[in-house]
Design brief:
The chain is α+β, with helices and mostly antiparallel strands and about 450 residues long. It is built from 14 helices and 16 strands. The radius of gyration is 33 Å and the shape is elongated.
Length: about 450
């Protein structure tokens, strides 16, 4: 009662407090991140290891099992699951809630470094603080050529070196992936008869190629006050440098690789693919950064796409360099904001319609515009002011938070009905009723 009496005796103070709440709520509404679902802080670390051309059984026996033996005694580890597939294997590590994710990643990295060794061709494990079971992409963008005869999957280098860095710099984007591309590789097709005529074996040829395709340090040479670093450069730069490799020296002269084999520049086999409108095209997929605003991030992505697609831009320059009979364009095929806007709009409309129906119901029973006006104004003010609490606590605007706002709005309306009904004595109790007895 003291709060009620104080509010009645200080109407100007109450009015100022209400206006400040509305102003703060409107400012907070512009700052609160908007997402589809609330952000869940899960302490999960994923370690992925790639081994090209290896089967799933080889990945499991030679890589994953060795890693699991070292990772089994991690502190705070709750569960460890692994998946082995052709060419790669991943381990999902879940830790106790409250574990520092940076410390967990550092410990995982240390444990993986204790593995004595991997087979030839195995890449270093990639450690990420991303749950592979709950990866959610906010956009899929295809690199589509207007020339139907051009294979866009061969643009891996262009996408990796020119486009991907620009897309990864967009604020709000945590990671940009690529699907449906093929990397360049060199095929060496050996002629057995030519190899036999020169008295060489496959093992000798393989050893010659391995030893030549590398750079070696020769130390340093002191010359006055300067130290000159000496290096032997032998790494292959192009197909011609591979063909000119000397694989053996004989009395008749050097034997080049082109004498015993055919060297061709090809593309790797397509391991993953995606379709758009019935055609195989390479794609970029985007992941949202933790706590980022989905709508603002999508606007930045679309602005960057417009910049890349403009006439005379980077894509037109690459199309001209390739000699395409057409153009290259980045086409967005999936936009998560469409579903988010529809879902949020549905919840917001439910709150609005529910508030209108509740106001009309109050007007029907109370028959007082002043009383109904007080209740009708109190509900939206409380909803707007609650946004300040979301921003203060670092929460996001999503379906769950909007549903949480709509439920208290119903209870607030019910409490106001009982409160006002008690003052006016409309409750069937026979005479005046204290507003607090209605509860």
């Amino acid at each position: 009662m003291k709060l009620v009496d104080l509010s009645v005796r200080q109407p100007i103070t109450v009015a100022v407090g209400v206006l400040l709440s509305i102003l703060a709520g409107l400012v907070a509404f512009r700052e609160v991140p908007i997402q589809m679902t609330p952000t869940v802080d899960s302490v999960v670390v994923a370690a992925t290891t790639y081994w090209e051309n290896a089967s799933a059984a080889e990945i499991e026996s030679d890589v994953i099992e060795e890693q699991e033996q070292r990772l089994g005694d991690l502190s705070g580890l709750v569960s460890m699951t692994s998946i082995s597939r052709a060419g790669s294997g991943s381990i999902r590590l879940e830790f106790l809630v409250g574990t520092d994710i940076d410390d967990a990643m550092a410990e995982v990295d240390q444990k993986l470094s204790e593995v004595p060794g991997y087979p030839v061709g195995v890449d270093e494990p990639e450690i990420e603080d991303v749950d592979p079971d709950s990866v959610d992409y906010i956009a899929w963008i295809a690199l589509s050529p207007s020339d139907p005869t051009f294979d866009a999957s061969t643009l891996h280098d262009f996408m990796e070196r020119r486009l991907r860095p620009r897309l990864e710099r967009i604020p709000g984007v945590s990671q940009v992936g690529m699907v449906g591309t093929r990397e360049r590789e060199v095929h060496i097709v050996v002629d057995p008869e030519a190899l036999a005529r020169r008295g060489m074996t496959y093992a000798e040829l393989l050893q010659a190629i391995d030893l030549s395709n590398d750079n070696y340090s020769g130390g340093k040479l002191t010359e006055g006050k300067a130290d000159v670093r000496i290096r032997t450069v032998g790494r292959f730069l192009d197909v011609e440098s591979v063909e000119d490799l000397v694989v053996r020296r004989t009395d008749a002269g050097p034997v080049y690789l082109r004498d015993v084999a055919e060297v061709r520049e090809e593309f790797k086999e397509l391991r993953n693919w995606a379709r758009a409108r019935g055609h195989l095209v390479p794609f970029f997929n985007f992941q949202l950064a933790l706590g980022a605003n989905l709508l603002d991030t999508m606007e930045r992505i679309q602005a960057e796409l417009a910049s890349l697609n403009r006439e005379g831009g980077l894509l037109d320059q690459e199309a001209a360099r390739l000699g395409l009979d057409g153009t290259l364009r980045l086409v967005q095929t999936y936009d998560a904001t469409t579903y988010v806007n529809d879902a949020l709009g549905l919840v917001q409309s439910n709150i609005l319609v529910g508030g209108i129906l509740a106001t009309l119901t109050l007007l029907l029973f109370l028959r007082s515009l002043r009383t109904v006006g007080i209740i009708g104004v109190a509900i939206p003010i409380s909803v707007v002011a609650s946004i300040v609490v979301l921003v203060a606590l670092g929460r996001t605007m999503n379906i769950v938070s909007l549903a949480g706002m709509s439920i208290p709005s119903f209870w607030l309306g019910l409490i106001l009905i009982l409160f006002v009904g008690g003052w006016f004595g409309i409750l069937p109790t026979g005479g005046y009723v204290s507003p607090f007895e209605g509860f």
